[in-house]
Amino acid sequence: SVLPTRLELDVHADGWASVSVLLLSMEQMRVKGLPTPGLAYHEVLWRLRARLDGSPVFFAVACDLDHPLVRGLGATLIRYPVRRSRFEFSESSWRLRGLLRRGSCQRALSR
Q: How far apart are the C-alpha atoms of 11 and 8, rounded to whole Å?
């Protein structure tokens, strides 16, 4: 199972589970109070809806990031399962190109 043992997959009555895909495009992100240049990055966060002690929670399955510094911070500070990726965004669709374990993947979704 992808989920830790304390979590239970939240399955609908019809047998399907909820998957959440969150797309973010950040610009000029910086640490408050430090005179550093702002970072710009894109992120796709893949989450499963689960239950912890009966309460609904989201579990991050994968976090695709295109900026190496943000990817390193996400892996270290938040302990997200990060992957190196490249993104292409437009108003009607998005494309994610990234690496998965030993192989490569390419997937695209349109809204």
A: 9
